[in-house]
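In keeping with the milestone schedule agreed at the kick-off meeting, the structural modelling team has produced records for the first pair of proteins. Each record is given below as a sequence line and a structure-token line. The laboratory manager (R.T.) confirmed that both were archived under the project's standard naming scheme.
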Amino acid sequence: MLDISKFLIEAQGVNIQADGRMIINHVDMTVSEGEIVTLIGPNGAGKTTLIKAVLGLRSLSAGSVTIRPNIAIGYMPQRLSVDPNLPLTVRRFIGLAGKMAKGKRQSVLDEVGVLPIVDSSIHDISGGEMQRVLLARALLRDPDLLVLDEPAQAVDVNGQAELYQLISTIRAERGCGVLMVSHDLHLVMSATDKVLCLNNHLCCVGHPDAVSKDPNYVELFGPQVASSLALYHHHHDHEHAVDGHVVPSSEGHSHG
């Protein structure tokens, strides 16, 4: 059962300016243990900038970000360029993350489903396999908080659905919080607890099926995109209020 009182990070009134332009305007956000929070919004909305601020990689113009002391964070970047002339296997790439306990590398690669390609060149694997390798690298620290910037980038639609399901499974088995960025609410609807729709400011916040009906979401993405969101089933041991608040339930609840 989720316990949203156990905050991992809390952002309050975050403003970020650059070149005289407000990139992030008064954004509040929390991520708790065992909770998946997804940032969605159009290109240029400030999603990656907010992620960088949470990670301490971007200075704030105003507001604050509080992170639980001694927290372990695993970060999966939006993209990672590897020199095509550099001979590098998946095994070696994972090994570059530093020293780790015996068997740790194999265990994490198995967890994300890429152990069979461990001796393949990093340049020969598919986009979906590369994303899973990057996810494995983020998991090596046994993170309390997993931060994923567009984890399904360069992955086909079927692969995206599988990857989001894998992220849900990792959350369930590890109990970590997850903060991720996505362009597509449709794909993450069944794999997230709370959505923050960002367009430099917070347009709407809440459970994904509530956000999909929010007038601000419809205005931002257009009625055709909003109405195309498919029905889905979301099985778990809690329910959600309209604002995304988690309410314990004695039985799994299906939305649809």
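The second protein of the pair:
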Amino acid sequence: MKKYVQIVLPALVAALLACPSAQAQSLKDLLNRDNVEKLVGAVTGVNLAEMTGTWVYTGAAVEFESDNLLAKAGGAVAANTLAGKLDEQLQKLGFREGALSFTFEADSTFQATLGGKPVKGTYTYDQAENRVTLKLARLVPLKATLKYTSAQMDLLFNFDRLLDLVQLLAGKSGSGTLETISSLAEGYDGLLMGFALRKEE
């Protein structure tokens, strides 16, 4: 996002300073969150306001990458059954409704918090693919598929990447629960697993 700001911001500032009414407006005002979101949206076509904010965990989410895979796996029934099993295992690691949250800022930083313990990182959003890449210390970048509205969002990973994130947030490794989560994905190619979230008002 910084490179877009570097390219467009000088032109924006020059245009505003050319207007007498704009001279009273400080640089701080120009760089407030709302203006940055509008600027980036105009340049990239991405409305960061849709993703920014705090999203709170409501349960596990499971989806298949294509309609064909969904049909082969038994449809929505299979996805719902797997989501229930995944949620049951995640609860054993502290992933309960309201206990996990993700806060995405307009400056491409984010914070994941589980049970009051925060983990900070950065993110990039690919609008064309509708994917977000989370970058956290000690982990390779985690790519996730987004399914969201203004009030709800599913953050969906390949199961091995989900396990990496779960281990980091829960502070546990080698757990039998993690092995059980891994076994849920066996036999399902193209299965995405992750978190169902609601936007905090």
